[in-house]
Specification:
Elements: H1 3-16, E1 39-42, E2 49-55, E3 60-67, E4 75-81, E5 91-97, E6 103-109, E7 123-132, E8 135-143, E9 150-158, E10 161-162, E11 165-166, H2 173-176, E12 179-183, E13 188-191, H3 195-225, H4 234-263, H5 270-291, H6 301-330, H7 334-377
Antiparallel strand pairs: 1-2, 2-3, 3-8, 4-5, 4-9, 5-6, 7-8, 9-12, 10-11, 12-13
Helix pairs in contact: 3-4, 3-6, 3-7, 4-5, 5-6
Domain Cytochrome b561: 165-363
InterPro entries: AIR12_DOMON, Cyt_b561/ferric_Rdtase_TM, DOMON_domain, UCP037471
Signal peptide: 1-22
Length: 382
C-alpha cells in the first residue's frame, strides 16, 4: 500500500469521527454568536459540554451548550433552575427542528411534567441553534439576577418531537444524573447526585434479593429437605426464616416503589407495577397461610397444601419475571443481569439434582415398604 493510499484512508477515517468531539472543551471551537468563551466544561453525562462567558457586573451570561440528540429528529436542552436541583422549576431552553425544518430554540418554564412552550423567568437575547455533524448547539445570552455567581444547571437530550413538544427522554442513569451546580466565576461544575436514581437502585436491590433470591431458596428447603427424616423439623424453620425475611425485605422494596411512583407521576411502568402489586398481595396471603396452617392430620390439610404450594410457586415465577423487568428499566451494567442469570442457572441445576435425589429416596422407600409388606403376608414366613 502506497503512502498516498494510507493518507487517503486516514482522511476518510477522520471524516467518520463524530463531529461532536470537536465541540468538547479539549478541542478548539467557534460559535456564530460568540467566537470565543472564557470558560468551558465537559459535562459528565450525555456527551455534552457548556461554553460560557459571564459578565458578573451586569449578570449577563453568554453561553453555548452542545450535545448529540438521542435521535436524528430529537432535541437537546439546557436549563437553569433557580428553585431546585432537578427538572421541576427549571427555566429551560430546548432546541429542535421547527415546522419549517430549520433549527430553533423554544423556552419552557417547567412547573410539571406536562411541558409546553412558555416564557421563562430570565430574559434572553440572540437565542439560536444549529445541527451540524450529529450535534445540536444552543447559544445566546441570558440575563440573571444581580449577584448571581453559582446556579443549578440541568441538561437533557431526547429522541423525538411531537406537535412541537419534545417527547419524554429516556430514564437511564445518564439521563437522570444530568444536573449539577455551575460556578460561573470559577469556571467549575459539579454533579448533583440524583436521589431518585439512588432510590431506584435501592428498590431494585431489595426486590431482587427478596422475590428473586430469598423466596426461591426458601422453596428449596421445603421441597427437598423434608424428605430426610434427620432434617425434620429443621427444614421447616429454614423455610419459614427465608420466606419471612424475604417477605419483609420485599415489603421494604415495595414501599420504595410506591414512593418512586408518587414522585414520578409522568412515568409509568405498567407491567412492572402490576406484577409488583400482585406479588405483595400473594406474599401477604402466604404469611396468613402460615398462621392458619392446619395440623398434619387435619381433614383440610390436603387443600391447604394445594393452596400454599400453588401460591408459592406463582410468587417465585412472578418474582423472577419482575426482576428482569426491573433490570430492563434500571438498565445497569451487563454484569448485574449476567450475575442474576448465573444465580438462576445454579439454582436450577441444584434444584434438578435435588429433584433426582428426592425421587430416588422416595422410590427406594416405597420399594422397601412394599417388600416388607410382601414378606409379612407370606405364609411361609409366619
Amino acid at each position: 500500500m502506497s503512502i498516498l493510499d494510507v493518507g487517503f484512508l486516514l482522511i476518510v477515517f477522520s471524516s467518520l469521527i463524530p463531529s461532536f468531539y470537536s465541540q468538547l472543551c479539549s478541542a478548539p471551537s467557534s460559535f456564530p454568536s460568540h467566537p470565543t468563551f472564557s470558560a468551558c466544561n465537559d459535562l459528565p453525562t450525555l456527551s455534552s459540554s457548556l461554553h460560557w462567558t459571564y459578565d458578573a457586573e451586569n449578570a449577563t451570561l453568554f453561553f453555548a451548550f452542545t450535545a448529540p440528540p438521542a435521535g436524528e429528529a430529537g432535541w437537546v436542552s439546557w436549563a437553569i433552575n433557580p428553585t431546585g436541583v432537578g427538572m421541576l422549576g427549571s427555566q429551560t431552553l430546548i432546541a429542535y427542528r421547527q415546522d419549517d425544518g430549520k433549527m430553533g430554540v423554544q423556552t419552557f418554564n417547567i412547573t410539571d411534567y406536562a411541558i409546553k412552550p412558555s416564557p421563562i423567568d430570565f430574559a434572553t437575547a440572540d437565542l439560536a441553534a444549529d445541527f451540524v455533524g450529529g450535534v445540536m448547539r444552543i447559544y445566546g445570552k441570558m440575563f440573571l439576577t444581580k449577584g448571581t455567581t453559582v446556579v443549578n444547571q440541568v441538561w437533557q437530550v431526547g429522541a423525538a418531537v411531537s406537535n412541537r413538544i419534545p417527547v419524554k427522554h429516556e430514564f437511564t442513569p445518564a439521563n437522570m444524573n444530568s444536573k449539577g451546580k455551575l460556578d460561573l466565576i470559577r469556571g467549575q461544575s459539579t454533579v448533583t447526585l440524583d436521589s431518585t436514581t439512588r432510590n431506584r437502585n435501592i428498590h431494585g436491590i431489595l426486590n431482587a434479593v427478596s422475590w428473586g433470591i430469598l423466596l426461591p431458596i426458601g422453596a428449596i428447603f421445603a421441597r427437598y429437605l423434608k424428605i430426610f427424616r434427620s432434617a425434620d423439623p429443621a427444614w421447616f424453620y429454614f423455610h419459614v426464616a427465608c420466606q419471612t425475611i424475604g417477605y419483609g425485605v420485599g415489603v421494604a422494596g415495595w414501599s420504595t416503589g410506591l414512593k418512586l411512583g408518587s414522585k414520578s407521576k409522568g412515568v409509568r411502568y405498567t407491567d412492572h407495577r402490576y406484577i409488583g402489586i400482585t406479588l405483595f398481595a400473594l406474599g401477604t396471603l402466604q404469611i396468613f397461610a402460615l398462621l392458619l396452617r392446619p395440623n398434619k392430620d387435619h381433614k383440610y390439610r390436603f387443600y391447604w397444601n394445594i393452596y400454599h404450594h400453588s401460591i408459592g410457586y406463582t410468587v417465585i415465577v412472578l418474582g423472577i419475571i419482575n426482576v428482569f423487568k426491573g433490570l430492563s428499566i434500571l438498565d445497569p451494567e451487563n454484569q448485574w443481569k449476567l450475575s442474576y442469570i448465573i444465580f438462576l442457572c445454579a439454582y436450577g441445576a441444584i434444584a434438578l439434582l435435588l429433584e433426582i435425589v428426592t425421587w430416588i429416596v422416595v422410590l427406594r422407600r416405597k420399594s422397601h415398604k412394599s417388600t416388607k409388606l410382601y414378606d409379612g403376608s407370606n405364609p411361609s414366613n409366619a
